[in-house]
Amino acid sequence: MQNWQIKTSLFLNYFVFAILLNSVGTVILQVQNNYGVTEGAASVLEAFKDLSIAVVSFLISSYITRIGYKSAMLIALGLVTAVCFAMPSLNGFWATKLLFAAVGCGFALIKMSVYSTIGLVTSNEKEHISLMNFIESFFMVGILTGYFIFSAFVDDANPQSTAWLKVYYLLGAISLAAFLLLFSAKLDESAAKSQETASFVQDFGKMFQLVVVPLVLVFVLCAFFYVLVEQSIMSWLPTYNSKVLNLPTALSIEMASILAGATALGRFLAGIAMKKLNWYVVLTACLALAAVLVLTAIPLAKGAEDRTVTGWGDAPLAAFVFPLIGLFLAPVYPAINSLILSSLPKRQHGLMSGLIIIFSALGGTTGSIITGNIFQRFDGQTAFYFSLVPIGILLAGLFFFKKLQARAAVEMV
């Protein structure tokens, strides 16, 4: 019963932050409408989110077990609850930067704690990778839900209206509910506590010792390039739908939910498939199919700008096909995260989670800024063709990751 309650809390915590974090694509579109900023300027919102994640992870990952996973998650939920309730009273591009900085700080604590807690409530590698995929799939359900929540507050008749900011009252209430559920849950963190009495500086140094291990080094590069491609697509899909496919603003946001839905389904199916199939075969096939989809779907956007679209029924085929890339990209991230974490002792999960978050955050920022600037200087189709580059690098990275994984037990001693 105890594990059931804490697992439910992990799902809800991830759900809350999925909505907030991945609203960046929606907010990028809205600040262009409300505040007249360019695509390049709007792309910095990703940096406020991801660099906050990276900095907090860098500073806290070696100390997370001393704070306690539950305490860290409560701090994160409390912070975003306060910021969400304050947002409707603020009005300006600066306020959105503040929001994503706060959400980034909170998510760093949440993700380190969730990833580390999975090791405390599972008993073997297969159970670990399965729960990891299910939690990550629920994260995508949160993203999917977020698109519809935000679109419900957008006024297509008045694109300059800031009434959409009232959505943060609802998000603040959900975050508060997550806080109360976690507060009432019990979590035994004794297995995560190191028996050594190392100083903070010594703990901090262990993270750097970990990153130079060849398997870990290849892993963090894979994580970096995966998030680079995922966030470059996810953050700019609403703008792509609006400016390239000529969809109304609310519909552009809603149809971006196809990407989240496809990713959620992909991770859910992977949670089942990974119990029986070789992870390398599955992930390589998925990345190859993702590349094929990019080459097939983007040409479908040609001519779409000449159409008048009013709803899902008359939306161009490209709006439905390209987001399906999420189905193929989905299994990669949770699978490699689980593989690296399950190869480490539980007391090192906090350190490894910190590295995962830092390099993922850097990848997300890099991908969004590159895509935003390509979008501004060239066009949306060219920006999305760019995703082929990190997909190719990922294929090579997984090859070396597989080679090194067999020696993981020796390398990690």
Give the strand tally: 0
**Average of per-residue pLDDT values:** 81
| Class of secondary structure makeup | mainly alpha
SSE order, as H and E? HHHHHHHHHHHHHHHHHHHHH
From the 3D coordinates, which CATH architecture would you assign? Up-down Bundle
Number of helices: 21
Strand count, sense and closure of the main sheet?
none
Proportion of residues in helical segments = over 70%
Beta-strand percentage range: under 5%
Give me the CATH fold name.
Answer: Growth Hormone, Chain: A
- Radius of gyration from the alpha-carbon trace, in angstroms: 20 Å
What would CATH call the homologous superfamily? MFS general substrate transporter like domains
Give start-end ranges of low-pLDDT stretches: 409-413
Spatial separation of the terminal alpha carbons: 34 Å
Shape: globular
- Kindly provide the name of the CATH class: Mainly Alpha
Count of discrete structural domains: 1
